[in-house]
Amino acid sequence: MSEQGPLVLIVEDEAPLRRFLRAALVAQNYRLVEAETAAEGLQRATEHNPDIVLLDLGLPDGDGLDVTSRLREWTRVPIIVLSARGQERDKVQALDAGADDYLTKPFGTSELLARIRVALRRVAERTPTEEPIVSLGEVTVDLARRLVTRAGKPVHLTPHEYKLLTTLLKYAGKVVTHKQLLKEVWGPQAVSQTHYLRVYMAQLRQKLEGDPARPRYLTTEPGVGYRLRSEDDIAGGAA
C-alpha cells in the first residue's frame, strides 16, 4: 500500500504564496516539492516526477509558458497555472502551451483544492480501464484509495514501486519499453538507468507474484521492456 498522498510540485517565486500553498496542501495530505525559478522547476520535475504541478507564469528567470512547453515534451502531468495575469489571451496562451487549468491570483483554498482534485481525477480516467479497482489473480489494486492487497492483506509498496505498477496498469496488455517506463516513473534524466527497472521489477514480483522466478503477470519482453498481462491475456494464451 502507498500511504502517501499525491506529490505536488510548486513552482512559485513568491515566498508568502508558497507558505499559503504549503499550509493548504499539507493539511490535505499532499506531499510537496518546491521551486522558485523556471530552471529549478524543470529540474525538480525531472528529479521527482510529480503527480501535479502548480506553476506561476512570472518567474524570475523565465516565463511559465516555456516551462509548460518543456514539460509537455516528456510528461502528461497535470499543470495548473497560478498567475496574476487575468486577461483572456493569457489564459488561452497557457492552455495552448499545454496547461490543464488556470487560476487567477488571488484565489481561495477551496477552489484550488477542487481544481487539483479534478485534474488528478482526469489523470485516473486516462487509463484504459475505467474501473477504480483492478484484479490480477489474488492481487487487487484500488486506484482510488492507492491501496494494493494480496489475498486480502495490504501490500506495502514504495512510491516508485507503486508508480511502476500503475504505469504498467495504464498500458495493460501492451509492451512498455524500458525508456518509456524510466521516463514516466523516474523522469527523463533516468532513461539510461535500466538497472532501476531490474531492481524495482524484481521487488514488485517478490511482493505480488506467486512465483517471482516465473512471473504470471509482470512479464519481461527481452531487450524491449515489460508487459503487465491481464487475466484475459493469460486465458487467451497471449505470450
Task: Report what the structure shows.
The chain is built from 9 helices and 14 strands. With 239 residues, the protein is an alpha/beta fold. The chain folds into 2 domains: 7-125, Rossmann fold; 133-235, Winged helix-like DNA-binding domain superfamily/Winged helix DNA-binding domain (Arc Repressor Mutant, subunit A, Orthogonal Bundle), CATH 1.10.10. It has a 5-stranded parallel β-sheet, sandwiched between helices. It has a 4-stranded antiparallel β-sheet with strand order 8-9-10-11, with no helix packed on it. The longest helix has 17 residues, at 109-125. The radius of gyration is 19 Å and the shape is elongated. The two termini are 29 Å apart. The mean pLDDT is 87. Residues 131-230 form the OmpR/PhoB-type domain. The modification 4-aspartylphosphate is found at residue 56. It comes from Nannocystis bainbridge. Pfam families: Response_reg, Trans_reg_C. Residues 7-120 form the Response regulatory domain.
Instruction: State the fourth-level CATH superfamily of the largest domain.
Output: Response regulator
The largest sheet, given as strand count, sense and whether it forms a barrel, is: 5 strands, parallel
Helix content: 40-55%
Average residue pLDDT = 87
> At the first level of CATH, what is the class of the largest domain?
Alpha Beta
Distance between the termini: 29 Å
Query: Radius of gyration in whole Å, from Cα?
Result: 19 Å
Shape annotation: elongated
Structural domains: how many: 2
The appropriate CATH architecture of the largest domain is: 3-Layer(aba) Sandwich
Number of helices: 9
Output the strand order for the largest sheet: 2-1-3-6-7
User: How many DSSP E strands?
Assistant: 14
User: Per CATH, what is the topology of the largest domain?
Assistant: Rossmann fold
Which blocks of ≥5 consecutive residues have pLDDT under 50? Answer: none
What structural class is derived from the secondary structure elements? alpha/beta
